[in-house]
Specification:
281 residues, alpha/beta, 5-stranded parallel β-sheet, two-stranded antiparallel ribbon
Length: 281
């Protein structure tokens, strides 16, 4: 069962860290020194690539990740189908599978890329060439390293994952990344999971900053930021409550938690100018 006693670890989410606040001498903010605003030239490039998808007869969004991603993805598909603002030309393929965390996603010859992805696409009458957008929600197993080495190791792993995405989906134009949920409710040794899971967010941040300035033919950016300090609400109100929002041993979102995150992601893309051309009607 989930350990609901650890409702907080007393850390400010990266998205709420304002300049000059730091975590172990590293600034927060999704993009820079306490800033959640992406560089204007990078945003313009993202909008340009997204506009190429605007008039397509169909755009396929591939969901990539493990169990928690699959659960949130199922809720995302249901809610997107009910939302009249979401494009009817958008097909969402849930390619997330149990056990396929970042360590597995980084392996180009592993089961995920060689078997699960092609089989799941085929079952939905889709091909790898149909995928134009990918949403990756992932986290790695605790690396047993101190910060920032653990975050840097995750950044290295994300480079491998992106290379696999490029190979698997040759016509993909947009890749959105999201880290894992708060892991303090885990019923094992929660200190093995947090703050490591929080710290992995810096690896995503550094990877995205690197890609925004170096990759021209593929747009890589945040696809929401889910980590909260447990039950402590963020400035946008998001919190992960126990037992309401988690299930089992505390590692995975409950139906209520999956719905909460899916709705948050939908609103994120509605507000994101790089997503509006392909996501909205």
């Amino acid at each position: 069962m989930s350990n609901c006693t650890k409702k907080s670890i007393g850390i400010t989410p990266i998205i709420d860290m304002e300049y000059p606040q730091t975590y172990k001498n590293y600034f927060g903010g999704l993009y820079g020194e306490g800033s959640n605003v992406r560089p204007p030239d990078c945003e313009a490039r993202g909008v340009s690539l997204a506009n190429e998808l605007k008039m397509a007869a169909r755009n396929v969004l591939a969901i990539v990740g493990a169990s928690s991603t699959r659960l949130i993805g199922e809720a995302l598909i249901e809610q997107a189908a009910l939302d009249p603002a979401v494009s009817k030309r958008l097909t969402i393929a849930n390619l997330a599978h149990a056990g396929q965390d970042a360590d597995e996603l980084a392996n180009p010859t592993g089961q995920y890329w060689t078997q699960l992805v092609p089989q799941t696409l085929a079952a939905d009458s889709l091909t790898p060439e149909d995928v134009k957008v990918a949403w990756i929600m992932t986290a790695r197993r605790p690396a047993g390293k101190p910060f920032p080495e653990n975050a840097q190791a995750f950044q290295d792993m994300l480079r491998l994952i992106l290379a696999n995405v490029r190979h698997a989906f040759p016509y993909c134009k947009m890749v959105y990344l999201t880290g894992g949920l708060y892991m303090g409710y885990w019923d094992g040794d929660a200190t093995a999971m947090e703050p490591d899971r929080f710290e992995q967010g810096f690896g995503i941040k550094w990877f995205i900053r690197e890609q925004l300035t170096s990759t021209k033919d593929l747009y890589v950016d945040w696809g929401d930021y889910f980590w909260t300090d447990g039950a402590t609400p963020r400035t946008d109100g998001l919190a992960l409550l126990c037992p309401k929002d988690v299930k089992g041993n505390g590692q995975h979102p409950s139906p209520a938690g999956s719905l909460k995150m899916a709705l948050h992601l939908i609103q994120w893309w509605k507000n994101d100018v790089t997503a509006q051309p392909w996501f909205l009607e």
